[in-house]
Model the fold of this input.
Amino acid sequence: MGAMNDTGLSNPAWLAQHADYQRVRQAIEFLSAHWRRQPELAELAAHLGLSEAHLHKLFSRWAGVSPKRFVQSLTKAHAKALLRQHSVLDTALAVGLSGPSRLHDLMVVHEAVTPGEYQRQGAGLCVRWGVHPSPLGEVLLAVAPRGVCFLAFFDTPDERLQAEHDLRQAWGRALLVHEPEATVPWVQRVFAPWSAAEWGTSPRAPLPVLLKGSPFQLQVWEALLRLPPGGVCSYGDLAARLGQPSATRAVASAVARNQIGWLIPCHRVIRASGEVHDYRWGSDRKKALLAWESATGAQT
Done:
């Protein structure tokens, strides 16, 4: 489908990557249904109606890796292997770093609303929002004076309406201003890791986000920020790391209520079985994110 963004102000490379993602999403749907037998490139290309050469080029342009490496990163066996890497993850979490991966070039710092602001549900706050194409599909992004406060992906007009509804639910008492020109610079910063030209440049300032949730939800989201790109953990592991091993369901609920897609990496939490589901912006997008992070991070 075509881009449904509100403004043409965007990185031209992302428009191509946006179109690529729609193909990648179709490929993930096919691979998810047939992952046990690991389809060859020729079969996948035939299913998508593309030549093998075109498919290889498309994947390499979007994911930065070959289709074979990308497919390997989508398997359940790969996810379960990641879950077994406790020592690596524990070390990363202990020092609060994600390792040397170039993916960590995107630094996120967070601030939570105060208890009084939480009770007021954004009253007195101006929140500007816009819709833009991105390498992960259409995105609705909202910013407050203190940083990104909402980020939702969508693929259809109905999903866009749902994203707008979720924004109103999250910040319903704030002054919501549809001003896509104001959110363009933020979109450019959020998706900078998909621009090859960005790598190797001087460090950028951390990207601020503004969180609004209960104390327990904030605790869970802060723990998510310590998960390294390319790594995953189970809901039970996350509950244990919070010192509440019996709170797995509460942790899962808090993860599901995350209002800032990708930047608060709830996509890195999967079931202990290795199954990749339970993502409010679509399981195929979650698989694409995990595969991209794993495959791209492995190169550095």
Q: What stands out?
A: The beta strands are 108-112, 126-132, 138-144, 147-154, 175-178, 207-211, 233-234, 269-270. The first helix runs from residue 12 to 34. Residues 91-105, 196-203 have pLDDT under 50 and may be disordered.
